[in-house]
Amino acid sequence: MGQTIVSERIHPQIRKPKFPLEKIKRESGFGKKIPFFTAFLSSLSVLFPEGERFFIRSVKAFQNEIQDETLRSEIKAFAGQEAVHGNVHDKLNERFVEIGLDFRSHEKMFCWLFFDILEKNILKLFPVWGKRLALSITAAAEHFTATLGRFLLSLPPEKVAWIDPITWKIIEWHSLEELEHKAVAFDVYQKSGGGYFTRIFGMTIAVQLLGLLAVVGTVRALFYFGFPNPKQIVRDIRFFFGSPGFTWAVIFYILEYYYWGFHPNNEDDQALIAKFSTIVASSAY
Ligand SMILES: [Fe+2]
Ligand SMILES: [Fe+2]
Fold it and tell me: N or C, where is the chain less crowded by C-beta within 10 Å?
């Protein structure tokens, strides 16, 4: 396969942080200064709880086919981490409703489109391949969350100063754990016999669905946050297209996934994981 794995396997660690969500104010949300990115993060938060439960289902559907003891225990840790992520984002989304940022209809639209229409019917029509496709979509989405996590944790402090401090703590913790378990779904996919074409088909579906939902969610969120002023628009464009540039990072990492010999551990995140494990462990929450 030509895979060059540079990073060692890291066993995901389940943490149960408690965040003072009641302190998040309407004026801040995820942070006001970069409105498009703030709106984008808010729209993702809405997709996380049910999305992460889908990840757990699709990985667990293959756990009996995995003989490797290390990977089996990583599956448990992966499911544990994603379950806590789902619960924290549920509470965060409830807090958003309390402060007037009500995205429940967006969440409903996502669940209807993805679970009621796609997941249910594909699994009914193609029970074996459907399970495989669900896992490949999960592996692709996990690559996306690891990419987003790496991008956010690599930003210099002055670039994250605009983010609300409580939501930043949630981002730090969630991003760290996404990096820790970035290879689990992918390894389960490969070790259970998943091939290249369904793998990239899963990424193609994930990109289109996530792209559509993120764009619709971001536009809807902007109505809550208020349309940005010209200064903010310039800052947003720089954030998305300047250096380090969120857009370029996403395009690069999505294309990388289509490489035949791709593996999540081709990217070495050990220094970031070590740094943020300490930060998250010493956090007051
Ligand atoms: Fe997660
Ligand atoms: Fe994840």
Answer: N
pLDDT in tens, 144-159: 999 999 999 998 888 7
Å from CA of 231 to ligand 2 middle: 34
- Reported as half-sphere exposure (CB side, CA atoms, 13 A), residue 252 has a value of 12
Residues with CB under 5 A from ligand 1 (ion): 52, 85
The residue behind tokens 């464009």 is 237
The rounded Å distance from CA 141 to ligand 1 centre is: 10
Residue with more model confidence, 138 or 165: 138
| Local structure of 263: helix, strand or coil | coil
Taking the centre of ligand 1 as the mean of its atom positions, its distance from the CA of residue 173, in whole angstroms, is: 10
User: In three state form, how does the secondary structure of 24-92 look?
Assistant: CCCCCCCCCCCHHHHHHHHHHHHHHHHHHHHHHHHHHCCHHHCCCHHHHHHHHHHHHHHHHHHHHHHHH
